[in-house]
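A reminder from the course coordinator: this example appears on the midterm review sheet, so study it carefully.

Given structure:
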């Protein structure tokens, strides 16, 4: 482990034997330790969450713009003779 041990926290997690075996197999396939595999996967999910929030924010912004465009079209059509 390359990190300074004072900056690392030990975390105990309980999993089924089958789940542990999946972690072992996947770690082996990725040439990682079990710890590296678990940390990598956790980091990936947190990064995905950030991407999800960004996508939701982007969609909300597009919806606000579309709503305003619809309101503008309706208002313009009311002004037309």
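Designed residues:
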């Amino acid at each position: 482990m390359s990190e300074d041990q004072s900056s690392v926290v030990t975390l105990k997690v309980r999993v089924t034997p089958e789940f542990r075996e999946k972690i072992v197999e996947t770690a082996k396939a990725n040439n990682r330790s079990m710890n590296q595999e678990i940390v990598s996967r956790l980091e990936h999910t947190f990064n995905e969450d950030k991407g999800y929030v960004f996508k939701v924010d982007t969609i909300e912004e597009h919806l606000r713009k579309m709503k305003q465009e619809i309101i503008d079209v309706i208002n313009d059509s009311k002004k037309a003779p």
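The CA atoms of residues 26 and 37 lie 8 Å apart. The chain is about 75% helix and 0% strand.
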